[in-house]
Design a protein that fits this description.
The chain is of the alpha+beta class. The protein contains 3 helices and 6 strands. A two-stranded antiparallel sheet has the order 1-2. It has a two-stranded antiparallel sheet with strand order 3-4.
């Protein structure tokens, strides 16, 4: 059964010669609103009803810096710590990319993979092996030529 709000229904008047009973009919226009706007009105009412109810649970606070206290006073220190961590990660990424490129260049030129990363230095493909942040080292697989950063 279709429920239609009362303001959309109008009693039809007695028609001349019809002799009929007054039956309800839908109003085509009510107070300047045509039936083309009905889906918009219904959607607005549904969204308003969906918004009413229990408020959502607050999300737990996340921090990119594990040592962050969340205080406004420590915000500059937290920011500088995060910037320093990002700098270390970007330097390690760039160093890793340069070593990988040197391995590829060595393989293309020598038609083999280097036996170790030190061979890249002695052959002149790298000036020196990059110094990674404390606690990290370069790991090289001579069978595949894969280079990655690993924990010491």
């Amino acid at each position: 059964m279709l429920l239609i709000p009362a303001f959309f229904i109008q009693k039809s008047g007695h028609r001349a010669g019809g002799g009929g009973v007054a039956r309800p009919r839908l109003i085509r226009e009510t107070a300047g609103m045509n039936m083309g706007n009905l889906p918009v009105v219904v959607l607005t009412l549904l969204l308003a009803a969906a918004g009413c109810g229990k408020p959502p649970e607050p999300l737990p606070a996340r921090s990119t810096n594990a040592a962050s206290s969340g205080s406004a006073l420590s915000a500059p220190v937290d920011y500088l710590g995060a910037v320093n961590d990002a700098r270390k990660r970007s330097v390690a990424t760039l160093d890793l990319a340069s070593v990988r490129q040197a391995v590829q260049l060595f393989q293309a030129t020598e038609e083999r993979l280097p036996a170790s990363l030190n061979e890249l230095v002695t052959s002149g493909y790298l000036a020196k092996l990059p110094a990674l942040p404390a606690g990290q080292q370069l790991a090289y697989d001579p069978q595949t030529g894969a280079v990655r950063v690993a924990a010491k």
